[in-house]
Design goal:
single chain; 316 residues; mainly alpha; Formate dehydrogenase/DMSO reductase fold; globular; membrane
């Protein structure tokens, strides 16, 4: 695995958590959900790391030809798709995605009219997350297309954001009311089931259509190693669902369930992305270095953000 490939993998993973955190915040504010308070500071901190990801995106721009096959060769694509996937237009769109999300994160964490910001933000964020999934992930195989892919991948990002926020919340010592935590449990379980159904629906549509160019995407991910990775991913999801299904689960069960959900997302994302080349020490070192830098920035933001501890401890 090359250095650019390693940076690409960690970029997609961290951008997904940051953008998914925006969705968690906006839905929570828009619906006045009482489950938001225990994870609000964690989600806000994750969303505010987007400027760091913008810098990482600038680095990746120098390796565009290495990451996307269409960057150096049009690959006999239809003229409309070839124009859409031109390197200059791709970089403009990618910068727009990150700048819009960065602006939304700042607005959402500094405004007093949270519901208005959330309503406008969701209207902007939905197409941003959908098209960023098409551009950053699906275009790695530009001859394949799925109208459900953006939704399925976006739901996975929201799942990862909520699971990581719950995990960090439960590792802290501040108490949260049982009713709020029970609502978080329901929200996480709902996302797990919705994500599973959306990916299955996409597979079912491709299977029913039975078109060679549609099936190729799945055939490329059906080798022994890939099937093992996919099986592991859904075994982790099933374990998380089984743990979270009983009403009023314990703090430890929530901790384990959220960790399993995050591991499911990670393994499934790797199955979707299909990293090219074996994992080298250089690639592993780059992944851990960038992840550690992101965690450091995340921790620094957490220290200066409000904790909402009193609100989280109160019964709604």
């Amino acid at each position: 695995m090359s250095a650019m490939e390693a940076l690409y993998i960690v970029f997609v993973a961290l951008a997904g958590i940051a953008m998914g955190s925006l969705v968690v915040l906006m839905i929570g504010h828009l619906m006045n959900e009482h489950w938001l308070a225990p994870v609000r500071s964690e989600a806000e901190a994750a969303a505010l790391t987007l400027p760091l990801l913008l810098l990482l995106g600038l680095v990746l721009a120098f390796g565009l030809g290495e990451l996307f096959p269409w960057a150096n060769d049009p690959l006999n694509l239809p003229s409309a798709r070839a124009s859409y996937l031109s390197p200059a237009f791709f970089m403009i769109r990618s910068a727009a995605y990150l700048l819009i999300c960065t602006g939304l994160a700042y607005w959402l964490t500094h405004t007093h009219d949270l519901r208005r910001a959330s309503a406008i933000g969701l209207a902007l964020l939905t197409p941003v997350m959908t098209f960023s999934a098409y551009d950053w992930v699906l275009s790695r195989e530009p001859h394949w297309w799925s109208s459900l892919f953006g939704l399925a991948f976006g739901l996975g990002q929201v799942l990862a954001a909520l699971a990581s926020a719950i995990l960090i919340t439960l590792l802290k010592t501040e108490p949260a009311s049982p009713k709020r935590m029970a609502s978080l449990e329901r929200a996480l379980l709902t996302l797990l089931l919705l994500t599973a159904w959306t990916w299955f629906a996409q597979f079912l549509i491709v299977w029913l259509a039975n078109l060679p160019h549609e099936v190729a995407w799945y055939l490329g991910r059906s080798g022994d190693g890939n099937l093992t990775l996919l099986g592991t991913s859904y075994a982790l999801m099933l374990a998380a669902i089984v743990i979270l299904v009983p009403s009023g689960v314990s703090r430890m069960a929530m901790l384990i369930g959220s960790a399993l959900a995050l591991l499911h997302h990670t393994t499934h994302m790797l199955w979707v992305l299909q990293p090219r080349g074996g994992l080298s020490w250089l690639a592993l070192g780059l992944i851990f270095t960038v992840a550690a830098l992101w965690i450091g920035v995340y921790g620094a933001i957490m220290r200066v953000r409000p904790t909402y501890a009193e609100e989280a401890a109160e019964e709604p």
